[in-house]
Amino acid sequence: MVLGLSACTPSEFAEPPEVVLVSMVPVDVSLMEQRLAVTLRVRNPNNVPMSVDGMRFSIDINGKGFAKGSSDKAVTVPRLGEAELEGTAHVSTTDLVRQVLSAPSAQGLAYRMSGTLFLAGMAGRSAGFETNGDFDFASALGGAGKRN
Asked: Which residues form the Water stress and hypersensitive response domain (predicted)?
């Protein structure tokens, strides 16, 4: 699931966090841009809690840029546990239409999500992440995306 972790991750975290896409739900639609409420699950495989005080991320679909987003929410991911983090992503109408028109009708779409978790109390430290998966585009926008 997670392919990379930035070099500036604190040494107390022996393993990188996993970040997976849980849902994307439209919250504001206009002629030029859509705003999506995005829920991400952060899994901490380490034996120490991980305090996250924000993140930024981008989502590609079928190898093409789709959405960019961020969250200023803070959450403590328990040791050997997980927590959900909500954020907002923006999608241009042009990108959305391009993705819908080029979507294969009989199969799921491949997505790649990458970004940075900002770690609280770590003097500006951060942890990068990258996740790949597949989901049904129409279902994912309704909040029922497939998980890895």
From this structure: 19-136
